[in-house]
Structures are given as structure tokens and as C-alpha cells.
# Entry
Amino acid sequence: MNWYEEFGEQVRLNVPLAPLTWFGVGGPAQFYVTPRDVAQLQAIVARLRENEIPIHVLGSGANLLVHDAGVEGAVICLNSPEFKKAEIDGTTVRAQAGKDVQKLVLECAHAGLSGLECLAGIPGSVGGEIKMNAGGAFGDIGSAVHCVTVMDTNGQVYVRERDDLVFGYRKSNISARFILSATFELSQDDPTRVANKVKEIWMFKKNSQPLADHSAGCIFKNPRGLSAGALIDQAGLKGSIVGGAEVSSKHANFITAKKGSKAADILTLIEQVRTRVQDKFDVTLETEVVIW
Ligand SMILES: Cc1cc2nc3c(=O)[nH]c(=O)nc-3n(C[C@H](O)[C@H](O)[C@H](O)COP(=O)(O)OP(=O)(O)OC[C@H]3O[C@@H](n4cnc5c(N)ncnc54)[C@H](O)[C@@H]3O)c2cc1C
# Structure
């Protein structure tokens, strides 16, 4: 009997990842796993470990570039109904890892809760956004986090409290493989004021980013004190094309992918941009996008 048979349709073989990422490119996952709940996640992870199968965790795929050859091992996505729940209790919001952050932002605005507006227009799941400490000029998700429940690859579940959490630029000190849920402490505000702030931030993003195209947001991290987008723009790279991949004319730190693009096109363009910026400004750009 194969390791996955006892888990039925929660483990599927050779599943294309392109439709599960915002770039819309890349090959299949050898095993695509969508556990029903934490108990089943623990059982699956135990089998994966016994069989020495590599584990990858997928959120909404908004910061991911998957190679054309796909991913060996298991891609685990916490997107079953149990992992998409969120509840509001006064100013405390508890959300499971698979909860869509844009929905959460709107639910909080509706409830007159302020603290997550800065995430308007940043696509992702609660798990993925905490992992990346998603944010920008308006703030980041880490600032609103009260505690995070995580699970390691031994199946051990534990809570990381605020005092023990450090959120930095697109990173945190959470090393456990799985973020299961998070609790946010928000402040009471006027629902209309919060909704207007969400709208304002969303409009700003819509005007400055190619939101209608396939992308993964910013490709490179901003080097200390500098803007990666400005360096790419000043290097004359806006509009550069490799195959179906293009450096966006709207925001130079975005690479967009046309239908039919290959991951290889995007990877080649990333390297061309990195080389040109290195040669022109002697600055090494580090990728923000996670590459599988
Ligand atoms: C149009 C667009 C605009 C964007 N704008 C911004 C922006 O302004 N600011 C910004 O910060 N980002 C931005 N991004 C990038 C993206 O929205 C964020 O990085 C977001 O955090 C990705 O969340 P995700 O759920 O899609 O994670 P994924 O892309 O699925 O995964 C990202 C990383 O998180 C890990 N991960 C995912 N879920 C979990 C989990 N439950 N437990 C542990 N690890 C997990 C993955 O293994 C991977 O390493 C943008 C992306 C797009 C497409």
C-alpha cells in the first residue's frame, strides 16, 4: 500500500501548480495535499517523514515562482474549510492559516476594527502573509499579530506569543514549518473610516501596480535605503522582455507573465535584471519572490 492511500482525495498526484499561483506558470506537484484539519495534517506529515518525502507549504501562491519541471515531494496547502475560518470577538480576531487576507480585511472593516487596513491589495493567505510579514509603506501584518499557532515537522503544535515574535522586512523569526493560525489584536474604530482607509490604500495600489496581470508582486527586496524598483527603472529595464515575461512599465519591480509564459522566461529575466543593476550601480538585488 502506498503511503497516501489512507488519506483518500486529500492527497492527489501530479497536480499542476500553475493555476494555484498568481504567476500562473510552473509544473506539477508530485503530491498535492489538502488536509482536512490539524489532526490529519499531523498524520500526513508523519507519513511524509517516514518516507523521507520533502515538504513544501503553499498559501495562495501570490509570492511564488514554480519551476517548469514542477516540485518533487509534497506541496501542502491549508485551504480546506477548517483552515479558512475566522472569528471576531470584540477587538480580537482569530484567523486560520488558509483565510484569505483580503476577505479578512473587509470583515474587520465591516466590524469597525482597525489594524489590518495596510494589507489592502496584498493578495495572500494568513499563513503566507505572516511567513512573509507582508506589508509596505502603510504598515505590515506583524504589527497587528498577538500570537501565532504553529506546527513543526514532528507534528508538535505550539503557540508563539507576541513578546517572543520578531517581524522584520518580509521575514519573521517563525521557523516552524507550518503556521496554523494567528490572533490579531485590533482597535475599535468607525466602520466607515476603516472602510475608506482600505479603499484609499487599494486605489493607491491599483494606480501604481499592474494588478490585472499575472505576477508575484515585487520580485526583489529593496536594498537597505534604496528602492529596487527605482534602480531597475534607472537601469532602463522597464518593458524588457524574455519570452512571455516582461518588466512591468507600471512598476519596475514587478515582472508580469503573459498566458503561455514559462517559468524559465521569468527566471532568465530575473537574472538579466540582477546583472544589469549589479553592473550599473554595484548593488546586488536579492529576490523577494520564493522560487520552488
Ligand atoms: C499583485 C500582487 C501584489 C503584491 N503586493 C505585495 C505588497 O504590497 N507587499 C507584500 O509584502 N507582498 C506583496 N505581494 C506578495 C504576496 O502578496 C505576499 O508575499 C503574501 O504574503 C503571499 O501570501 P501567500 O499566502 O500567497 O503565500 P505563498 O506565495 O503561497 O507562499 C509564500 C511563502 O510563505 C510560505 N507559506 C505559505 N503559507 C504558509 C503557512 N501556512 N505556514 C508556513 N509557511 C507558509 C510558503 O512556503 C512560501 O515560502 C504581492 C503579490 C501580488 C501578486
